[in-house]
């Protein structure tokens, strides 16, 4: 028994020296958030550039956008490796792993890339610089383990993610009121917490009515926090939260969780309005569903979905009603509802002076 304990301790020490830390934060927050950034810098940005090219009739932009979209698997895997502090050779080798995994994972590729890239990265870190021919061994181990896992697991992981996403979208179609509330609240809260709502939506391929509810929830949190904290943070805070991230309020939420009530209520109202009344769908890249007004990515995703629907023949044209619905859900309603609720809470002293103050 004593000998076994020594062996286990040696293994733990070896892993620690190699920077291999098995933790929920490292894999469920850091790696997931990095994956979303990789997806943003490839698929999402490529979609925006391609849409600009199509709308403006500039062919070179369409070509550039398509190249950017095609690199999404590589970008996600490398981003995950970067978040896990992968050595250079491991990091570069993840390009092959990400490409293979995303391709084999199909629609649910992002989740497959997350799981397999984490394993490939940690295995690569364990072998890194352990031999005199590191330049051969480390890339070989990383690529072989990652690609073999992609061949074995990626289709299954992708199917699971796709099936779960389809189930959520089917439930939203079936029960738009209830699911509109649930999806909007959950994704909105995820956007404000230090986890990636964008990566979650991407992993589940969340589009359609469910995607619209997710957009509503995210916008409710970003615009909600931006407007109710305007007294404390002025224009800098409005822009930082409204176009950046509501995650800036996390420190204040920990101190006083009640400050999150206004945007949560706003999301609970705008979500079902989006699904039941306005029938707003997000048929752009799934990652857009979890971005809200960050760089206006959520609304842009809805717009790019309109373009796709028109190209596919499921939509005839973009109407003034479409634009009015988008502005109402993403900007006007979140601001009005959040301000009303916040005013009530301030009168009840649930929200006090400087509770929403940011260190800007």
**How many domains make up the coordinates?**
2
How much helix is in the residues? over 70%
Query: What's the total number of strands?
Result: 0
Which structural class is indicated by helix and strand composition? mainly alpha
CA-to-CA gap between the ends? Answer: 56 Å
Main β-sheet: number of strands, strand sense, barrel status?
none
Choose one word for the global shape: globular
Uncertain parts: none
Radius of gyration: 22 Å
| SSE string | HHHHHHHHHHHHHHH
Number of helices: 15
Beta-strand share of residues:
under 5%
Describe this structure in words.
The protein is mainly α. The protein has two domains: 8-160, no CATH class; 175-347, no CATH class. Helix content is 77%, strand content 0%. The protein has helices spanning 2-17, 24-56, 59-70, 72-83, 88-105, 109-127, 134-174, 176-192, 197-203, 208-228, 230-244, 250-255, 261-277, 297-312, 320-347. Helix 2 (24-56) crosses helix 6, helix 5 runs parallel beside helix 7 (134-174) and helix 10 runs antiparallel to helix 11 (230-244). The longest helix is centred in the middle third of the chain and has 41 residues, at 134-174. The N and C termini lie far apart (56 Å). The model has no long low-confidence stretch (mean pLDDT 92).
Descriptive terms for the model:
2 domains, 77% helix, 0% strand, globular
